[in-house]
């Protein structure tokens, strides 16, 4: 079988001036990672040499990655920044060559693959098109397809963008990400993220409004935001915990008959329109058939029945929220 040539990234540590680098050599410089596009030997660093270098991702801690691989090549560090970049690294031969594809020696999978994972088999780079269990036969008809290194590098760059998007989402968990002018309206007391800073709205802002510190927003911190949230929850819980009472006495119910009762609640309306309980006093022969809060929350409606042969007077007590 003809050789596919060099198809794996070869980590070369931190870039050093004067060192000769070949295509697909992988280096770290200035906190970023780069892959060599064409052989080069010189003093121009990767940041300023786009002819020979392609930046792959920013924010690498090369010392931490190197230390992780050399100390325990089978262990991926739990540090999130390292894990995001190292999750597909495999240790190969005595040089701990960090590939972005697992090498398969036979036609059966030796590890579990998810759709989208890469693997090397028979000098060819493949991408899994379906989940592959240990022992499954590798076949272009069912679970793998041949790919180029270019496609693999494009996937890696896309994954880097996805990580950036995920970070932005987490930043938005506690506040709405905003620009200035805004793309939505904000009420007083809301929180927003603007230019990587958390702010609290002090003046209502219409959609399209300009964010101005000191005029409609003030700098805030997560602690203050959580306190505001906690205060709001406390207020809600306090409101929900309040049980109100209302009563009506002197309700005349004729012998063996019914009486309809309506108790006005407009002076002390319910917060959530929930009936918590009721009782009828004054006699045991008057029983409640229906007791409920009206749909407009303005009154308690009840229907009582007198089961005796005498005219009676009853009292109705109601608890509600």
Q: How is this structure best described in words?
A:
The model is unreliable at 60-99 and 162-174 (pLDDT under 50). The protein is 19% helix and 34% strand. A hairpin with a 4-residue loop joins strand 7 and strand 8. It has three domains: 10-152, Carbohydrate-binding module superfamily 5/12 (Seminal Fluid Protein  PDC-109 (Domain B), Ribbon); 176-240, Seminal Fluid Protein  PDC-109 (Domain B); 244-320, Immunoglobulin-like. The longest helix has 24 residues, at 149-172. The strands form seven sheets. The chain has a four-stranded mixed β-sheet with strand order 1-3-4-6, with helices on one face. Strands 9-10-11-12 form a four-stranded mixed β-sheet, with no helix packed on it. The chain contains four helices and 22 strands. With 321 residues, the chain is an alpha+beta fold.
Order of helices and strands: EEEEEEHHEEEEEEHEEEEHEEEEEE
CATH fold-type name of the largest domain: Seminal Fluid Protein  PDC-109 (Domain B)
Q: Report the portion of residues in β strands.
A: 25-35%
Number of beta-strand segments: 22
- CATH class descriptor of the largest domain: Mainly Beta
Characterize the overall form. elongated
Largest beta sheet: what is the strand line-up? 1-3-4-6
Q: Which CATH architecture of the largest domain?
A: Ribbon
Radius of gyration: 36 Å
- The domain tally reads 3
Structural class, please? Answer: alpha+beta
Q: End-to-end distance, in Å?
A: 81 Å
Mean pLDDT across all residues, rounded?
A: 75
Number of helices: 4
Quick one: CATH superfamily of the largest domain? Carbohydrate-binding module superfamily 5/12
The proportion of residues forming helix, as a percent range, comes to 10-25%
Uncertain runs are 60-99, 162-174
How would you sum up the major sheet?
4 strands, mixed
């Amino acid at each position: 079988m003809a050789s596919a040539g060099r198809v794996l990234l070869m980590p070369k540590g931190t870039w050093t001036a004067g060192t000769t680098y070949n295509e697909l050599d992988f280096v770290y410089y200035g906190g970023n990672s780069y892959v060599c596009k064409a052989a080069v030997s010189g003093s121009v660093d990767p940041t300023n040499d786009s002819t020979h270098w392609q930046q792959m991702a920013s924010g690498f801690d090369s010392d931490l990655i190197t230390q992780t691989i050399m100390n325990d090549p089978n262990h991926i560090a739990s540090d999130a920044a390292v894990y995001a970049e190292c999750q597909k690294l495999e240790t190969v031969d005595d040089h701990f060559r960090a590939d972005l594809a697992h090498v398969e020696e036979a036609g059966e999978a030796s590890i579990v693959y998810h759709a989208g994972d890469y693997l090397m088999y028979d000098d060819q780079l493949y991408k899994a098109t379906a989940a592959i269990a240990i022992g499954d036969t590798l076949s272009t008809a069912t679970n793998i397809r041949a790919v180029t290194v270019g496609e693999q590098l494009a996937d890696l760059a896309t994954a880097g963008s996805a990580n950036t998007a995920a970070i932005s989402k987490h930043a938005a968990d506690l506040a709405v990400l905003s620009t200035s002018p805004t793309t939505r309206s904000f009420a007083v007391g809301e929180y927003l993220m603007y230019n990587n800073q958390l702010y609290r709205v002090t003046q209502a802002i219409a959609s399209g409004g300009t964010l101005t510190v000191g005029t409609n927003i003030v700098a805030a911190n997560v602690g203050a935001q959580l306190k505001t949230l906690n205060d709001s929850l406390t207020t809600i819980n306090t409101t929900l915990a309040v049980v109100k009472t209302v009563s009506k006495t002197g309700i005349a119910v004729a012998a063996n008959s019914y009486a309809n009762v309506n108790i006005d609640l407009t002076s002390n309306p319910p917060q959530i329109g929930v009936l918590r309980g009721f009782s009828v006093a004054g006699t045991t022969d008057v029983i409640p058939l229906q007791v409920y809060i009206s749909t407009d929350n303005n009154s308690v409606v009840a229907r009582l029945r007198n089961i005796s042969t005498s005219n009676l007077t009853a009292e109705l007590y109601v608890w509600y929220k």
